[in-house]
Amino acid sequence: MRERQQGMLGLILALLLVPAxxxxxxxMGVPPPExxxxxxxxxxxxxxxxxxxxxxxxxxxxxxxxxxxxxNSKMLAxxxxxxxxxxxxxxxxxxxxxxNYGRSAAAANEPMVxxxxxxxGRLRYDRYVLDDASLFLLTTGRHDRFQxxxxxxNVDPGFKYxxxxxxxxxxWGELGYDFQYDVRNDEGREVHDEAGVLTETLEKTATDHSxxxxxxxxxxxxxxxTFSNGLEYLQSFIDAKRYRFNYDILLAANIWGGFAFGVGFxxxxxxxxxxxxxxxxxxxxxxxxxxxxxxVKE
Length: 298
Hints:
Elements: H1 2-29, H2 33-40, E1 57-69, E2 74-88, E3 91-105, E4 113-130, E5 133-144, E6 149-165, E7 169-184, H3 186-189, E8 190-192, E9 198-201, E10 205-220, E11 225-236, E12 243-256, E13 259-270, E14 280-293
């Protein structure tokens, strides 16, 4: 009888101890739901902030426009330009060429004479020290017959900072030094008095040293309409009264594929122009523009 009671007591203890032992193993091996969340940590945010890098690729465009008239007066005019910009890693490259040419006659029986003749080319290299900041070297060559310039060379090292740098919008400023070397044509060297008598002939060449600032903006309102403009200011170190402003603006609307219709305006102001020259020259153009880009849109 005692042995039977002892056996029943052992069985009861075994039944009580086995679940407790199993529960202890579960508690040590698998945490409860709340502990499991703590052990894994919070879920990775789906909308975590991303560091934006500058858009890379090539953007190029060419434009052309013209005008012809006959009858009581005659005129033939042409304008054209080409532009390419590229950014790869910490290096940026750019080149542009802009030209305008026109001939006109005030009466049908008069011969046509050249009334507009200018050509400007630019080369540029940027070395980005930060994603939105670069050191650059800009070289510009310009020919403008009616400003008295056979050739004008500008060499501009400087610093550029992009305040906004996205595929659809770019806003930047530049600060640097400008070296200018002019080769003047004969008309640009002659100084006349009020009666038209020649009183002085200037030197064939001249140099100047200036501080250069520039502010540029480029924006795409949508995939069909783009806007760009830039304002450049140069202040001579040699003569405080010698300063210049250059302003360019272009609004282009896509009409089909890569083709767009562009309306442009440019102004060139020189506070101390060559003798007998106006301080301000302006030009308004209507162009057919073709553009191409490998920059990935937002």
